[in-house]
Write a structure and sequence with these properties.
This protein is α/β, with parallel strands linked by helices. Helix content is about 30%, strand content about 25%. Helix 3 crosses helix 4 and helix 3 packs across helix 9.
């Protein structure tokens, strides 16, 4: 029988069997080869930091091959590689209008980075980054790694990246950062001022939701610069003091969320347009995703992998899970 991963209760992930029913009209059935969770959101579920109904499915995006077509489906074929949103499980039955067609050259790592790419693109746009700007990304999870690359695509002349985790800093260098900073070793804001000849960066993208990071992002800005605040933060109980820099440097602090409508550039831009642009960039191989998917485990190892993300977040960037046959398939380069 096919299997799926669920969160039975707080910090108790399990793999259980399920049955596929008849395929509805207008749907495609997909054998899943690989997938990935969404660390920030799903770790809140996993740790019980937000209220959810149990059992709760775990996983964000999956990649696989179509094995059956429902009545009325057009534009798809059995054997076609596709991707879509959904939990970690052996099969998915998706409405045809929610299925993402993968190009021949596209890798599964690129496909599962679709979601973080959207929030990274939105942050770069909301931050008003322009050609020649100096930028910094705070927090180098999947969204931050994508933001480093989106900033470069957007025309940044200099991109710094800040994170206390060595593995994440190394990945950021691989995907195009000019400078990486360990905020536990040096003052990140001071390091940014030094790297820019004392001026500071034009745009800071804060993805961690950490108030110390937001404070240093403001400290490292040039006068009148912009912070695009992407991270989902909790109540501020320390780490942020607007009186030290913000009151004098008059920064723009913009809250950024790709899927909040209307878009800041409505009606020209909306969430569907952001998704279309991100999928095209990923399909064309313009975003380097392989260094971001760390670690990669089998479906059977994924329960322990979730425990490890919870207890040792420094060991991962974005978990990749090989679920079924062809899980390591990478498309044609």
């Amino acid at each position: 029988m096919p299997r799926e991963m669920i969160l039975r209760e707080v910090r108790q992930a399990v793999i259980r069997a399920y049955e596929d029913g008849p395929i509805p009209g207008g749907h495609v059935r997909v054998n899943i080869a690989s997938g990935a969770p969404k660390h920030g959101t799903e770790m809140q579920f996993y740790r019980g930091e937000v209220a959810v109904a149990f059992p709760k499915k775990l996983g964000n995006m999956c990649v696989g091959t179509i094995v059956e077509l429902g009545s009325g489906v057009t534009g798809f074929a059995v054997g076609q590689r596709v991707a879509g949103y959904g939990g970690l499980r052996d099969t998915h039955t998706w409405p045809q209008d929610r299925v993402l067609r993968m190009s021949d050259r596209m890798t599964w790592q690129e496909a599962v980075c679709f979601d973080p790419a959207q929030f990274a693109l939105s942050a770069v746009r909301d931050g008003q980054l322009r050609v020649g700007d100096c930028a910094v990304v705070f927090g180098l999870g999947a969204i931050g790694q994508m933001a480093v690359q989106m900033a470069r695509i957007g025309g940044a002349a200099f991109v710094a990246a800040v994170d206390p985790v060595a593995r994440r800093r190394e990945a950021a260098m691989m995907v195009g950062a000019d400078l990486v900073v360990d905020p536990t070793a040096v003052n990140a804001g001071d390091a940014l001022k030094e790297a820019t000849g004392g001026k500071g960066v034009d745009v800071a993208i804060e993805t961690s939701g950490n108030y110390n990071a937001l404070h240093e992002a403001i400290h490292g800005l040039a006068w009148g610069g912009t912070v695009a605040f992407v991270g989902f933060s909790k109540e501020c109980k320390g780490g942020l003091n607007f009186g030290t820099d913000a009151h004098f440097m008059v920064p723009n602090i913009v809250f950024s969320r790709a899927c909040s409508e209307p878009n800041r550039d409505h009606p020209r831009w909306d969430w569907p347009r952001i998704k279309d642009v991100c999928w095209r960039l990923l399909s064309e191989g313009r975003l380097d995703c392989e260094p971001i998917i760390q670690p990669v485990v089998t479906f059977e190892q994924s329960i322990e992998a979730f425990r490890d993300i919870d207890q040792h977040p420094e060991r991962s960037i974005k978990l990749g899970v090989l679920i079924g046959e062809g899980g390591t398939g990478s498309g044609k380069k």
